[in-house]
Amino acid sequence: MNGYIEHANITLINPRHTIEFLLAALPDWKIRGQGRMENWHGKDVEWFHVGNEHCYIALQSGGDKTLPDWTTHWTGVKHIGIAVDDLSTLVERLSNAGFELDHWGGEHPHRRSAYYVDEHNMQFEFVEYFSELPSERNDYSQ
Questions:
Q1: What tens digit of pLDDT does each residue of 93-107 get?
Q2: How far apart are the C-alpha atoms of 52 and 70, rounded to whole Å?
Q3: Range of the domain at 131
Protein backbone atom coordinates (compact mmCIF):
# COMPACT_ATOMS: atom_id res chain seq x y z
CA MET A 1 0.00 0.00 0.00
CA ASN A 2 1.23 3.48 -0.86
CA GLY A 3 0.90 6.04 1.91
CA TYR A 4 -0.65 9.43 1.29
CA ILE A 5 -1.81 12.35 3.38
CA GLU A 6 -5.53 11.95 3.94
CA HIS A 7 -6.03 15.03 6.10
CA ALA A 8 -4.45 17.70 8.25
CA ASN A 9 -6.08 19.11 11.39
CA ILE A 10 -5.82 22.83 12.12
CA THR A 11 -7.15 24.70 15.16
CA LEU A 12 -8.22 28.27 14.42
CA ILE A 13 -10.05 31.15 16.04
CA ASN A 14 -12.52 31.47 13.14
CA PRO A 15 -12.63 28.33 10.99
CA ARG A 16 -15.51 29.74 8.92
CA HIS A 17 -13.14 32.33 7.40
CA THR A 18 -10.71 29.63 6.31
CA ILE A 19 -13.62 27.53 4.99
CA GLU A 20 -14.78 30.49 2.89
CA PHE A 21 -11.24 30.87 1.55
CA LEU A 22 -10.80 27.17 0.71
CA LEU A 23 -14.21 26.85 -0.96
CA ALA A 24 -13.52 29.98 -3.05
CA ALA A 25 -10.15 28.52 -4.11
CA LEU A 26 -11.35 24.96 -4.71
CA PRO A 27 -14.93 24.80 -6.01
CA ASP A 28 -14.82 20.98 -6.15
CA TRP A 29 -14.34 20.92 -2.35
CA LYS A 30 -17.20 20.99 0.12
CA ILE A 31 -17.87 20.65 3.82
CA ARG A 32 -17.83 16.84 4.11
CA GLY A 33 -18.87 16.79 7.75
CA GLN A 34 -19.15 18.99 10.77
CA GLY A 35 -20.04 18.85 14.43
CA ARG A 36 -19.46 20.13 17.94
CA MET A 37 -17.47 18.88 20.87
CA GLU A 38 -18.68 20.15 24.21
CA ASN A 39 -16.07 20.92 26.83
CA TRP A 40 -13.16 19.62 24.75
CA HIS A 41 -10.28 20.31 27.14
CA GLY A 42 -12.21 23.21 28.64
CA LYS A 43 -13.70 24.70 25.46
CA ASP A 44 -16.69 24.07 23.26
CA VAL A 45 -15.29 23.39 19.80
CA GLU A 46 -16.93 23.43 16.38
CA TRP A 47 -15.21 21.24 13.76
CA PHE A 48 -15.44 20.91 9.96
CA HIS A 49 -13.97 18.50 7.41
CA VAL A 50 -13.45 20.48 4.18
CA GLY A 51 -12.29 18.70 1.05
CA ASN A 52 -13.30 16.17 -1.58
CA GLU A 53 -13.90 12.43 -1.52
CA HIS A 54 -10.14 11.70 -1.33
CA CYS A 55 -8.75 14.18 1.19
CA TYR A 56 -9.73 16.99 3.51
CA ILE A 57 -8.52 19.57 5.95
CA ALA A 58 -10.03 19.34 9.42
CA LEU A 59 -10.66 22.83 10.76
CA GLN A 60 -11.78 23.43 14.30
CA SER A 61 -12.49 26.41 16.50
CA GLY A 62 -10.90 26.87 19.91
CA GLY A 63 -7.71 28.64 18.90
CA ASP A 64 -6.44 31.44 21.12
CA LYS A 65 -4.04 33.31 18.82
CA THR A 66 -3.01 33.70 15.20
CA LEU A 67 0.20 32.09 13.97
CA PRO A 68 3.39 34.15 13.83
CA ASP A 69 4.26 35.55 10.42
CA TRP A 70 5.45 32.76 8.09
CA THR A 71 8.82 34.48 7.65
CA THR A 72 9.74 33.93 11.32
CA HIS A 73 11.57 30.87 12.66
CA TRP A 74 8.85 29.35 14.85
CA THR A 75 8.38 25.60 15.03
CA GLY A 76 5.29 24.24 13.30
CA VAL A 77 3.59 23.93 9.94
CA LYS A 78 4.68 26.74 7.59
CA HIS A 79 2.05 26.05 4.93
CA ILE A 80 -0.31 23.49 3.44
CA GLY A 81 0.38 22.74 -0.24
CA ILE A 82 -2.51 21.92 -2.56
CA ALA A 83 -2.06 20.87 -6.21
CA VAL A 84 -4.49 22.44 -8.69
CA ASP A 85 -5.13 22.07 -12.41
CA ASP A 86 -5.23 25.79 -13.31
CA LEU A 87 -3.43 28.25 -11.04
CA SER A 88 -4.39 31.35 -13.08
CA THR A 89 -8.09 30.56 -12.72
CA LEU A 90 -7.66 29.91 -8.99
CA VAL A 91 -5.88 33.26 -8.48
CA GLU A 92 -8.64 35.05 -10.37
CA ARG A 93 -11.35 33.24 -8.37
CA LEU A 94 -9.71 34.20 -5.07
CA SER A 95 -9.25 37.81 -6.18
CA ASN A 96 -12.94 38.00 -7.12
CA ALA A 97 -13.82 36.60 -3.68
CA GLY A 98 -11.71 39.30 -1.97
CA PHE A 99 -8.65 37.20 -1.04
CA GLU A 100 -5.29 38.81 -1.73
CA LEU A 101 -2.26 36.94 -3.10
CA ASP A 102 0.65 37.00 -0.63
CA HIS A 103 3.39 36.07 -3.12
CA TRP A 104 4.31 33.90 -6.09
CA GLY A 105 6.59 30.87 -5.74
CA GLY A 106 9.98 30.64 -7.43
CA GLU A 107 10.34 30.14 -11.16
CA HIS A 108 10.52 26.55 -12.40
CA PRO A 109 9.91 25.08 -15.87
CA HIS A 110 7.63 22.30 -14.59
CA ARG A 111 5.54 24.00 -11.91
CA ARG A 112 4.19 27.32 -10.72
CA SER A 113 2.86 28.23 -7.29
CA ALA A 114 1.08 31.01 -5.43
CA TYR A 115 0.89 31.60 -1.68
CA TYR A 116 -2.01 33.00 0.35
CA VAL A 117 -2.27 33.80 4.06
CA ASP A 118 -5.62 33.70 5.86
CA GLU A 119 -6.65 35.90 8.78
CA HIS A 120 -4.98 33.49 11.24
CA ASN A 121 -1.64 33.79 9.37
CA MET A 122 -2.16 30.21 8.12
CA GLN A 123 -0.37 29.98 4.78
CA PHE A 124 -1.60 27.93 1.82
CA GLU A 125 0.44 27.17 -1.29
CA PHE A 126 -1.36 26.29 -4.50
CA VAL A 127 0.80 24.61 -7.12
CA GLU A 128 0.14 23.79 -10.77
CA TYR A 129 2.35 21.19 -12.43
CA PHE A 130 3.19 21.36 -16.13
CA SER A 131 4.47 17.78 -16.38
CA GLU A 132 3.19 14.33 -15.46
CA LEU A 133 6.75 12.99 -15.15
CA PRO A 134 7.79 12.59 -11.49
CA SER A 135 11.40 13.40 -12.42
CA GLU A 136 10.28 16.81 -13.73
CA ARG A 137 7.61 17.55 -11.12
CA ASN A 138 10.05 16.71 -8.31
CA ASP A 139 13.08 18.48 -9.81
CA TYR A 140 14.81 20.51 -7.10
CA SER A 141 17.85 21.64 -9.15
CA GLN A 142 16.21 24.88 -10.30
A1: 999 999 999 999 999
A2: 27
A3: 7-137
| Cα–Cα–Cα angle for 55, 141, 5, rounded to 5 degrees | 15
Q: What's the CATH code of the domain at 46?
A: 3.10.180.10
Calpha distance 91→101 (Å, rounded):
7
Instruction: Indicate the average pLDDT of the chain.
Output: 94
Q: C-alpha distances in angstroms, 129 versus 40, 112, 142? A: 40, 7, 15
Q: Residue 102 has what pLDDT?
A: 97
- DSSP E strands: which ranges in 79-120? 80-83, 103-104, 111-117
Residue 11 lies in a domain: yes
Which element (helix H / strand E) includes 91?
helix 87-96
43-51 β-sheet, strand order: 7-11, 56-60, 43-51, 30-40
Task: Express each pLDDT in 28-42 by its tens digit.
Answer: 999 999 999 999 899
How far is Cα of residue 29 from the mean position of the Cα atoms in its chain?
Answer: 12
Residue 120 lies in a domain: yes
Q: Which residues contact 105 (CB under 8 A, 6 or more apart)?
A: 111, 112, 113, 114, 115, 125, 127
- For residue 104, being part of any structural domain is answered with yes
